[in-house]
Automatic annotation (TrEMBL):
Annotated source species: Flavobacterium restrictum
Span of the signal peptide: none
SUPFAM superfamilies: Periplasmic binding protein-like II
Location of the PBP domain: 33-270
Keywords (A to Z) from UniProt: Signal
Protein name: Phosphate ABC transporter substrate-binding protein
Length: 303
């Protein structure tokens, strides 16, 4: 009887040891484990690049879930996701909602990008004034273009332009919404006289199957409401603050502990992540350092 009890005790201890070991091995840390992140679909290309490098560097698996801005915020507030990457910071009201749940969101500003206007490449006009776009959205459609094309009625680009135009919902006349940025690019490439509204990253880093369509559209230069000059959505114009449709990008982490979300945010805001941003054509929060080696003497190996 004693031997049988001893054997059972040893088995129980062994199982506990294995369970504890597996729990320790599978525990999420800032550089290990798995996590799902909801991302504003207008920002998807640059975040995919970041995830690819992060996963190749660390023992981590990040699943990106692209959604419209409204869908991303809804998921964040209703505990369907604890991490979101957005083209705006949380408002005071939104932050207060989290505080009521005893959650303090950690917000990381990591880059600036731009909303771009695109036209069919065969179009002669590559300039557009925001006041004309706003006027068009408010019903004055006597403009040089036939219509505006957005990616999604719930997207961050629609919210941004509705705010500029003083509107609460997307107009029904002359303004069209599809599903994705790629669909907008294709539509403009195939329809002269339309202006597409997309995240600039979709133009600077197109997928192979989209390169032909990107080659058929022109990125328009934009004049701000109070400006006298037209600016293209470049790194220089964003850095100088002259492009009127630039916007800041944020990682909003509501995990409440030091998990993989914190590690990924630190990576994106760090040297490697900022280099990826710089290479993509967007504007990093901080320009990565360039290390220069200065030699006091130059050796001449030739004899």
């Amino acid at each position: 009887m004693f031997k049988k009890s001893a054997v059972i005790a040893i088995l129980v201890v062994g199982m506990l040891f294995i369970t504890c070991k597996e729990s320790t091995e599978n525990k999420e840390t800032i550089l290990k484990g798995s996590v799902s992140i909801i991302v504003d679909e207008t920002l998807l290309p640059i975040i995919q690049d970041q995830v690819q490098v992060f996963e190749s560097t660390y023992d981590a698996k990040i699943t990106l879930i692209p959604k419209s801005e409204s869908e991303a915020l809804n998921a964040l507030f209703h505990d369907k996701s604890v991490i979101a990457i957005l083209a705006r910071d949380l408002t005071k009201v939104e932050k207060d909602n989290f505080l009521q749940k005893k959650i303090i969101p950690k917000t990381t500003l990591f880059a600036s990008d731009a909303i771009a206007f695109i036209s069919n490449k065969s179009s002669n006009d590559t300039l557009v004034a925001i006041k004309d776009v706003v006027s068009f959205m408010n019903g004055n459609q006597n403009q040089a273009f036939k219509g505006l094309v957005f990616d999604n009625p719930n997207s961050s680009t629609v919210r941004y332009m509705n705010t500029l135009a003083g509107l609460k919902t997307i107009p029904s006349k002359g303004v069209f919404s599809l599903k994705t940025n790629d669909e907008v690019i294709k539509f403009v490439a195939q329809n002269k006289g339309m202006i597409g509204v997309v995240g600039v990253n979709w133009l600077s880093q197109p997928q192979p199957d989209m390169q032909q369509f990107v080659g058929q559209v022109a990125v328009m230069s934009v004049k701000g409401m109070t400006s006298t000059t037209y600016q293209s959505p470049s790194q220089n114009s964003m850095a100088e603050g002259t492009y009127p449709l630039a916007r800041d990008l944020y990682i909003i982490n509501c995990q409440g502990y030091s998990g993989l979300g914190m590690g990924f945010a630190s990576f994106v805001a760090g040297d490697i992540g900022q280099r990826i941003i710089l290479k993509s054509g967007l504007l990093p929060v901080r320009v990565p350092n360039r290390k220069l080696m200065i030699r006091n003497k130059i050796n001449n190996d030739k004899k």
